[in-house]
Amino acid sequence: MKKWAVVISAVGLAFAVSGCSSDYVMATKDGRMILTDGKPQVDDDTGLVSYTDAQGNEMQIKP
């Protein structure tokens, strides 16, 4: 019984950690730290980095 509790706890912890790992922090050249929701993407057309900020707004910055 104790072995099953450990296995179930480990699986639950793995799911909890993987669900929370989608935030990124970008450091800009001017020293700002930007928290993003999900991985930032480089826009091939404009060359800008596109990201969604913590409030859900779509933003772009020059790399």
From TrEMBL:
Pfam families: DUF903. The keyword Coiled coil does not apply. Residues 23-62 form the Lipoprotein YgdI/YgdR-like SH3-like domain. Residues 1-19 form the signal peptide. The gene is ygdR_1. This is Lipoprotein. Keywords: Cell membrane, Lipoprotein, Membrane, Palmitate, Signal. The keyword Membrane applies. It comes from Salmonella enterica I.
